Amino acid sequence: MIAPTPKPSRPRIAVLGAGFQGVCVALELARRGCHVDLYDAADRPITRAGLVNEGKIHLGFVYANDDSRRTADRMIEGALAFGDLITRWCGADALDDALSSPFLYGVHRDTMVDAAGVERHFAHVADRVRGRRYLGGILDAPYRRLGARETAAAFEGGAVTDAFRTGERSVHVGRLAERLRAALEAEPRIAVLPGSRILAAEADGRGVALSIRASGNGAEDGAGPVRRERYPQVVNCLWEDRRRIDRSVGLPAEAPCLYRFKIGVTLDLARPLPDLPSATLMLGRFGDSVSFGGTSLFLSWYPACMIGRSRDLAPPDWEAALDDATRERVAAATLDALGGLLPALRALDPRDIRHRRVAGGVIVAQGDTDIDDPDSGLHRRFEIGVRSQGGYHTVETGKYTTAPLFAVQAADRVTGGG
Predict the structure, then answer these.
(1) 63-87 pLDDT, tens per residue?
(2) Which of 377, 199, 209, 352 is nearest to 273 (CA)?
(3) Which of 5, 79, 218, 364 reaches 20 to 30 Å from 136, CA-CA?
(4) What is the pLDDT of residue 412?
């Protein structure tokens, strides 16, 4: 009996950037039988922006300043896919210990959109998500407006005029990163190539050639050797360096981009703060608190935490310049500002803080003015996703929420939907 001829394996695919987006793309490609080389300049996957954000899986509530509702609709699409895709790659229990308490939204007295406008926007979101599956549960009641007494109990000082309780949640980005790294290690089709800085990409009829330099040991100053690797297809999931590589391959420019460097304060507590809500103040330069069982907190206050902005093709390395004095100043200002709004946070005893992390990450978004401008492009996040030119694909993630969805869409481009 003649044995059947084995089907040829798919050629290797290069994925640039082992942040949250790149890891999701690599896992989806491997699931479809592709062999993947996953490049990153860091020494391990998911080390920068993917570890320093509130992890909110946006249902679009915060985008009330986009009257078209297109940003909310885009976020909803990503949010409703998020949980199922993460569990597909990381196992059914991947989010079991990673979800925050549901979010409160407080309308600040200096908001860009008043409470009536906010509620009209929330009603649109509710119509889109009611009864849908989200992070493993069903959204039966997407939001509820709080009464005056409930609002005063959650927020004090008179700065918050109205409040809404929603079904929206965050994921603990650190815990999820651990599960994703474990999934990478367990996947034989993925080769993680740390310490690899992508210098350029060149496309021709034979595929895409990458110029790669080993990072570290002086290589970032141009001292390391450069090697070239050719692939039939490349997926660019780099974060702040993505546009520079897109330009090197000749991809047409996107809309203007604003890079912002934002610090977050993460606290692990010995004793929980059970009354501290996950809360977002809207709509303007305010902040968030995120509570994971009251024992792990993420805090951010925009006026203190936003410490760098750039419109250059590639932004500076703000993280390398972040010193201890700045970390202390930002942490103190954040706790002071949020403590004046959230009474439960004032109950925090500094002696109960087992570990504190004050770190920054780059936010990449189309726009050329900051969020205090009502006309800023930062209030409209719908022109994001995957673009392709031949065998070269680039992913503008936009928000953490949409990364898994875009991973599937990028894999569709690579495999023809297979």
Answers:
(1) 999 999 999 999 999 999 999 999 9
(2) 352
(3) 364
(4) 98
Instruction: Name residues whose C-beta falls within 8 Å of residue 214's C-beta, 6 or more positions apart in sequence.
Output: 195, 196, 197, 224, 225
With CA atoms as reference, report the closest residue to 271 among 348, 375, 195. Answer: 348
9 falls in which pLDDT band (50, 70, 90)? low
Q: How far apart are CA 248 and CA 199, in angstroms?
A: 9
Q: Pairing relation of β-strands 160-166 and 190-193?
A: unpaired
Q: What is the CA radius of gyration of the chain?
A: 22
**Pairing assessment for the beta strands 353-366 and 306-310 based on DSSP bridges:** unpaired
Q: For residue 307, give the amino acid letter.
A: I
Q: At 163, is the secondary structure helix, strand, or coil?
A: strand
Taking each helix axis as running N to C, give the angle between helix 115-129 and helix 70-90, from 0 to 180 degrees, rounded to the nearest 10: 50
Separation between Cα atoms, residue 17 and residue 246, nearest integer Å: 13
At 199-254, the pLDDT tens digits run 999 998 889 999 999 976 544 445 678 999 999 999 999 999 999 999 999 998 88
Alpha-carbon span 37 to 31, nearest angstrom: 14
Strand partners, 204: 207
Instruction: Give the CA count within 13 Å in the CB-facing half-sphere of 343.
Output: 12
Q: What is the pLDDT of residue 1?
A: 38
Q: The tokens of 283 are what?
A: 């709509």
First-last CA distance in the chain: 31
SS (H, E, C) 58-106: CCCCCCCCCCCCHHHHHHHHHHHHHHHHHHHHHCCCCCCCCECCCEEEE
Count of C-beta atoms within a 10 Å radius of residue 233: 22
Sheet with 196-204, strands from edge to edge, namely 196-204, 207-214, 226-231
Rounded CA-CA distance 97/175 in Å is 8
Whether the Cβ atoms of residue 209 and residue 201 lie closer than 8 Å to each other: yes
Phi, psi of 83, deg, nearest 5: -60, -45
Query: In DSSP terms, which residues pair with 259 in a beta bridge?
Result: 310, 364
Nearest Cα neighbor of 110 from 369, 304, 286 is 286
Buried-state track 151-176, b at ≥16 Cβ within 10 A, e below 16: beebbeeeebbbbbbbbbbbbbbbbb
pTM beyond cutoff 0.90: yes
